[in-house]
Amino acid sequence: MIQRDVIVGIVGGRGKMGAWFRSFLEGQGCKVLISGRDTALNPREMARRCDVVIISVPIRATVDIIRQVGPHVRQDALFTDLTSLKIQPVKAMLTQSRAEVIGMHPLFGPGAQSLEGQNVILCPARGDNWLPWLQGMLVRNGARAFISTPEKHDRMMSVIQGLRYFCSLSLGGAMMTMGARMPECEKFSTPIYRIFMDVVGRLLYQDPTLTAEICLHNPETMAAVRVFRDWVDRWVRLFEQSDTDKFAAHLNEIRNYFGEFCKEASGETEFIIQALLQQQSQNSVDLELKN
Hints:
The protein has 291 residues and is of the alpha/beta class. It starts with 6 loop residues before the first strand and ends with a helix. Strand 4, helix 4 and strand 5 form a beta-alpha-beta unit. The relative contact order is 0.08. The chain contains 12 helices and 7 strands.
């Protein structure tokens, strides 16, 4: 059990996620040091002074930074990271340090107001001294902290991130080729279509380099994309055949696989639709008042 005051060092502490965790950890009573390319404190010196060392840099730089910092992390310290991939960072932290290692993936962005209701994946890889401290702190602040292996994490991310991004980017590209612009589509759209396109637009709005790294640096993603492509080919054939019975049979097979989630999703999206309609109505009233 960790009883003393904890000194945390964040490599990349001026980035968006690094800054988020700096604010959060300071709120938990930790002393937080930050290090990066433009700070007086270099990452190696910081690592030697800290009880917990967090790597919060772009995916493409993570393993290289771990190699630089790892030998300087104390054996009694915790070495962790915030990247959305886990196999390679965890392997690097294990081989480049003697510290306790826990891979961490917060499943939210720097715009989150708090940890309340947020998912965080933890991948303990060496030692058992720091896990109760880290998991307990997250849970006390409302997060749902789940334990996983790095392998399972990256496989799940190939679905949660890889497939979703692939679908959204493919849809966006198809609309661009067809010349289907959103202002015109909105005239014909249902509320659920608007919500669907909000998800696509949200992805397109984020940093393209970050999206590329998430899509291309997970070795599990291509296997998921190939499965998706097989299903695209299957649906193309069904569309071409215009066989209503066969189409419905495939749809029922998939719906049965998802089970109760379909009913839950219908209820949740209905709630979102009503909130969206209320917001649109309020926006119209505000616009009329201004005019």
